[in-house]
Amino acid sequence: MLTTEIKNKIQLLWDRLWAGGLANPITAIEQISYLLFMKRLEKFTPNLKKNLKWSTYHSFEDEKLVNHIKDTVFEYIKKDLAQNDEPFAKAMKDSVFIINTPSLLKDCIDIIDAIYQEIERQEKDNNQYFHDIQGDVYEYLLKHTSEAGKNGQFRTPRHIIQMMTEILNPDIDGKICDLACGSGGFLIGAYQYIITKYSKKTVKDENGLLKGLDGKKFQDDENIGKELMLKETTFYGFDVDQTMVRIGMMNLMMHGITKPNIEHIDTLSLDYEKLEAKRLSETFNPKDKNTYDNENLQGQYRYILANPPFTGKINSETVSENLDRIYPIKENKKLKKNERQKTVQSELLFLERMIYMLEEGGRACVVVPEGLLFNTSFAHVATRKILMHDCELQGVISLPSGVFQPYTGVKTSILVFEKKKYESETPQEIDVWFYEMKSDGYTLDTNRKKLKDNPIPEAIKKWTNRFKEEQKNRKLQHFTIPFAEIQKSKYELNFNRYKDFEYEAEEYRLPKYILEELFILEEEIFKGLSELKESGE
Fold this sequence. Notes:
Largest sheet: 9 strands, mixed
Helix content: 40-55%
CATH class of the largest domain: Alpha Beta
CATH superfamily of the largest domain: Vaccinia Virus protein VP39
CATH architecture of the largest domain: 3-Layer(aba) Sandwich
Number of domains: 2
Oligomer: single chain
Strand content: 5-15%
Shape: globular
């Protein structure tokens, strides 16, 4: 938990940037990220020249400070550091530093210094993990970016991320991915979950979930080397928005992940295959169909956590030819070429891509719009069929409407599934567990205020005990449905499709008793009017 002093200083930083002309919160957080990276240089860059060190900025006056940061420090990051393969520096390729007012720049530097003084004091006084506090600072900064982002992007609430990571139960035994990562919230959630697993000291947070404070189990003999793996080779993200890539990278670094592997790529495009081919030193020739079928490019991730944007229809020309199962590529005899329909649904393709990206036995926990679960179009039914043939769908968790306010009121659900190790023609064998969340512990309006109850731990408990408790009573909040029944229902997966609702008949009084009461009431009204008339004469 951040202290009031830190929160006040963060608010002061926002106020100064707002007053200084940086009214767009995304632009402001991007500029703050650049300054935070500059501050990190002194600590994490060996043999850094003195004039590039943050601690020397106070010696520059007014215009000289602005020019020094723009022309010397910023250019050093974009050129020299980028050439050394520093991830964040490479992502700054086309970035621009736009804090041009000397007084504003000095204020920002002073406030950031004051924030770090408070972080160090809180670390010492409360014996907290430095990166934990520093990460909380950046997340608190991100809360100010409250409006929806581009292309349907929006921030997933932290407590929903926590619930999903608890359900997925990731570890340092494989790569963890978010294929549309935005500010990196899911990757941070997975990181914090693993830190908690390896912590000897934990506390309960405001949502009733455990939070690790020290990560000291990494020092045990059996865990030697795992912390380095966690911070350098575990987390991978992709996003179409370069600004969000930078913000996501900074978010991961502020939490202690030293090498954030986030790429500026549309994972629905052919660029994704090209990137994986490059990472694996595989030859990739877009003109060679055999390249698309290279199985080595598939199954790169053990865990996927995601809430991809619900942008609706997109132009199919931007979509990889590898994604051809939901929207097949057919021969156009008139034009004598192969093509698919002009527009396609992005949320369906994201699900197909996730299955492609998962390794055999890999697991995913993802948010999807409710329409994906019951729409009867060919593409929607095909998507659900692929999901239940290529994977074991383990659970469907229905979220209440309003969970993603103030960004969107779209009704959503969470899918939990594991990629099979055998042919996709073999249908699902396990029953699917359904659960309805009636509340997430916050008001479901645009204010999203915290309520007294904490339903998240209960949902996690029900998931953990789903094999132990009664699951056949469809009148309950949770139950299981066999695959055969789902298959007969065109693979529909929405909770209400299988729920048994109990309707209690309301008892109404006989009309004669209601009429008697109305006559009595009418007499009283008439009497009152008569008395009022007499008093006025």
